[in-house]
Amino acid sequence: MNILVTGTAGFIGYHLTKKLLNEGHTVYGADNINDYYEVSLKYDRLADTGIQKEEIEWFKWVQSTTYDAYKFLRIDLSDKERTAQMFEDFKFDLVIHLAAQAGVRYSLINPQAYIDSNIMAFTNMLEGCKNHDIKKLVYASSSSVYGLNSKVPFSEEDRVDEPISLYAATKKSNELMAHTYTHLYGIQTVGLRFFTVYGPWGRPDMAPMIFSKAVMKNDTIKVFNNGNQSRDFTYIRDIVNGIEKVSVQKIDGTNLVFNIGNGKPVNLLHFIETLESEFNTVIDKDFVEAQPGDVTTTYADTSKLVKYTNYKAQTSIQEGISQFVKWYKEYYGN
Predict the structure, then answer these.
(1) What 3-state DSSP class applies to 248?
(2) Identified catalytic residue from 106, 167, 198, 311
(3) Suppose 7 and one of 98, 156, 210, 306 were both cysteines; which one would form an S-S bond, judging by CB atoms 3.0 to 4.6 Å apart?
């Protein structure tokens, strides 16, 4: 298939691109390479897929030197005209929209970035699918839509009308917008509520990278909510396997939303202890209060995704952290 994947300089998009290419699909990647975190990591991800930094210019398709079936475009997807032109350039069979402004805490500082990247850009993607008769759109939602939901595990049937961060509000808005376009134009939309994705090439603003950097620099880490929180840490390989299943397989239904997680929440302190074991060290910890927008527990009920696709997360926290630390040492130096 000819597949448009947005966010291919990002963590999940990079891994998904490699998987799809290795399975024989043609991939057209798009990303704005913004500076929310260090762009060097984004350029290195792109380089690993054969997209060379010196070739990248705004709104110029770059051919991969590693994969004949991969082209990349630097584009701001909130730009209505250029996004429309991107859809004109090639005939896409499927759109997987992962590009977004990520981060709960950053949404407290720069709310406009979330409106531009998560609302305006998503509108342009929906319009592109509508105007070019693309029948399937898979897009990134987030477990943050569950807010302060006290019922666990989180189910897609739970009420999600009380987001506690602007980031979560934009992701819930995406689900509502997708529902509307499905109803009006017959596009099959599939939203994926990701649960704390981690692994090699991960985001520097996420806990595994923050903690590992502290190990390397012998720094102190802040442990929010005094460590009284759990996350459904999901290894990147399991995530991209799930995305590939809902994208490439034929699944029944029109407007679908799935949890995609490990289904086994891990206490933050246990996560830190496992990381310490892999680094063979003890990290100095500063226990602090919870930050605005943070939730205490995330826990995915993945039974719906299992029913539709036979998805199953298979990576234990021990294996996942081991693979992550191995990559981190190689990339950043030990």
Answers:
(1) helix
(2) 167
(3) 98
